[in-house]
Every structure is written in C-alpha cells, then in structure tokens.
Design a protein that fits this description.
mainly beta; 3% helix; single chain; 423 residues; five-stranded antiparallel beta sheet
C-alpha cells in the first residue's frame, strides 16, 4: 500500500505521514472550485481545467495495463486514472498548480516498484508537474523497475503472534511510503517496494492498529526511534525476508493523589508527572521509581498500593496494571518572632510574632506562649496574642517560646528568643 491509491482510507496522521491509500476523484464542482479558491475569480471559474497524460512501461518498454496513476496537488486533493492496454493514462479536470504524480502497479500482473515522477522513489524526492488551465501537460511517463517485497513476522515478548500491527516503510525523510498489517499468524508482506534503503516501523497503537493487548511500538531492529533504527536495504526484484519484530507488552501505571494537602508525583523513566499526567504505560517487568514532592504548606504523608510504603521514593515493578496512591496533608504553620523590646529599666519584655505558611482562617488559628528560666526546662504553653508583654521580671536569664497552631496542628518547632534582665 502506498501513499496514493484508489479508495479513500484512514486519515490518521503519525510521524508526519498519512496512513492508507487516499484519492479523491475531482471534478470541477462548485465545492471543488470553492476549496481551491477558484470561485473567488469569475474569470478563473470559467477557465477550462488542465490535463496530465502519459505512458507507462516496464523496464523492457512493454506497455503496462492497470497501473494506478494519481496526481496530487499541494492542497492534498488528488485524482486518479488507470493505464489502458496501451499503457496510456489521462487525468483531467485539474486546476492550475503543481502536482505530484505517483505510479502504483498493485493492479498489474507481476511485481513492479511503485515510483513518483520522474523516476523518484519517494514523495519527498518527486519532481513537480505543472498544470495550467486549458492545457495538457503530456509525456509524464514512467518506466517501472522490478519491485521488491519485504516480509516478516511480529510477536509479543512471549513469542505469540500479534494480529493487526501496522508495518510501515519509511523514506529517509521519515515519510511513510508503503504499509501493511500483520495477519492472524503475525505475518506481513509489503510488495512493490523500490530499490533503496528504508526504515521499518512496527506501530501497535491500540486505537488504530492492534485490536487487543497493549504493546510498545518500535523501529527495526528493536530500536526506540527513527534515528537509531537499522536500515533495510532493498534490491530490485528480490524478497527481503525475516524483517521481524518482538514487541514488548505494556502495562498501565496510574497514580492517584489523596488527602487534604497538595503535591506532585513524577517517575523515572519519564511518563508520570501527576497532577498533570497521572497514568502512563511501561514495558512489562520495568522498574519505575516514583518520587513525591509536597507543595508549599503541605507534607507528603505516605504511599499505598503497588508495594509502596513509607515516605521515601518508591520503586514499582510493573508486572501488571498497577495503581499507586500518594497522600498529602496540610502542614501546621511555622511561627516567627517578628519583634522584641526589652525594657531594662522596668523589667519588662514585649514580643511580636506571626504565623508563616500553612495559615488557615483566623477562627481556627492562634498562638501559645511560654517563658522559661532554665535552658532545659519543659515549657508550659498558654494561649497568647501578639504582642505578648511580660512585666515585673526579676534579674535573670530567660527563654521566650511561642508556637502557632491551626486546623492542621501545632508548630512542632516553636520560635525561641533568649534574653536577660540585668540587675
């Protein structure tokens, strides 16, 4: 299957390529004229459309009947004709503009390579054919070389055949030129391939290709991306066999955020970035490290599910679909002493303080203060407000402590200030 064909097919787009055959038969209807911008100019609307004609032979100059010839303009619209018994074709009703002309011999007895005008193997390398209203652009001919066939077998990581995998033959620029799908036995065959160096992609996308199961797509030969893929070198008239793939099974890892606090969870390898992306697929048996990060004013309180416990990072081994929950709770406030005034003459001390972070409504927040004479004495906290003033202090060293509280608890590290009243 090539870039052009006789029947309308899928418009799924991946790798910058159109999948499936597509050819829309064009007449100079009112809709076509509107889409091409012709109707905006009455003079152009009345002009006769252009025509492309040509002749198709094999490498021995024998006429080829049944070759699908497609002309596609740069808007993506296309029109097709089939060569007759003399190898001739004519594509009419073409608005002015440049076209790519494609020759596909899938309807011809024998294996001939698909090509573009003028003798080019890929869409990106094709010569443009200029069409002018009211004129015939002739001698857009082709001599088709012997085609090659690429075959192979696709299995999962337990060596079971996978049906429906989209096998795509990509040009050096990454554009898809040929494609097929694996059968019930996991086999595929792609004929009419032109000689050259190609890249194969095994696409296991569940929504379009594989009807059941989750598998990791890959490039030949077990490579993760286009740039690292092994090339498949094709010689005219040959069959390139055993271009196989074993696709790793995929399992879902999902993360749920719980609790009244807030935070995020990320994964290594990448995939999870929750709260934006809270689920991802990983290869069966993969080990994924999850890291929880609490937002300001919150604390991470622990994992559950997937074998995760505690508050450290968690390594999850993905042997099946796995769900993990990360819990966050609001933190108690921090307390800050913002002002101190020691009046030595009157033996008094005044302290100002405030809550920093984790602050809730005033109705559920407040302060507790304590004044100690001994460094290691246990403070006895009592409710207080800022400013807090202590009077009639005898000469001595003192420690002032204050802790804020809110609905999330008391500050576990009270703010402290050492001072001395001199005699």
């Amino acid at each position: 299957m090539g870039r052009f064909g006789l029947s309308a097919g899928s418009t799924r787009h991946a790798h910058g390529r159109w999948h499936g055959r597509f050819a829309i038969s064009l007449g100079l209807s009112a809709l076509t004229a509107m889409l091409l911008g012709v109707a905006a100019d009455p003079q152009l609307a009345q002009a006769a459309p252009g025509t492309i004609t040509g002749h198709v032979t094999d490498g021995s100059s024998n006429n080829l009947q049944g070759v699908f010839v497609t002309a596609r303009n740069l808007n993506g619209s296309s029109s097709t004709d089939t060569t007759d018994s003399s190898g001739n074709y004519m594509i009419a009703d073409l608005p002015t503009g440049p076209y790519i002309v494609h020759f596909e011999a899938s309807g011809v007895v024998g294996d001939f390579a698909t090509e573009y005008y003028d003798g080019k193997p890929t869409f990106g390398s094709a010569d443009r054919v200029s069409v002018t209203d009211g004129q015939t652009t002739s001698n857009i001919d082709a001599s088709l070389a012997a085609g090659a066939t690429i075959t192979g077998h696709v299995t999962d990581d337990s060596n079971a055949a996978i049906e429906g995998v989209c096998v795509e033959v990509l040009a050096p620029d990454g554009e898809e030129e040929f494609s097929s799908r694996t059968d019930l036995a996991g086999n595929y065959s792609i004929p009419h391939v032109a000689a050259g160096s190609w890249t194969l992609y095994f696409d296991a996308e569940p929504d379009f290709c594989v009807s059941s199961g989750n598998f990791a797509s890959e490039y030949y030969n077990d490579k993760p991306d286009f740039d690292s893929a092994d090339p498949v070198v094709v010689t005219a008239g040959t069959t390139i066999s055993n271009i196989n793939a074993s696709l790793a099974s995929l399992n879902d890892l999902s993360v749920q955020l719980a609790g009244l606090g807030s935070g995020t969870v990320t994964s290594s390898p990448a995939g999870i970035d929750c709260g934006v992306t809270c689920s991802a697929q990983f290869n069966d048996g993969a080990q994924v490290i999850l890291t929880a990060s609490a937002a300001s004013g919150s604390a991470f309180t622990g994992w559950s599910g997937g074998g995760c416990l505690g508050t450290d990072t968690c390594m999850v081994t993905i042997n099946a679909d796995t769900a993990v929950t990360a819990s966050f709770s609001p933190k108690p406030p921090n307390t800050k002493i913002s002002g101190v005034k020691i009046d030595q003459a009157h033996g008094s001390a005044t302290f100002e303080f405030e809550l920093v972070g984790g602050v809730t409504a005033k109705a559920s927040s407040g302060f507790q203060c304590a004044l100690l004479k001994k460094k290691h004495a246990k403070p006895r906290f009592n409710a207080c407000k800022s400013p807090k003033k202590y009077k009639h202090l005898k000469p001595h060293g003192y420690i002032f402590e204050v802790r804020g509280f809110n609905a999330n608890g008391k500050d576990p590290t009270p703010a402290k200030k050492n001072f001395r009243i001199r005699g």
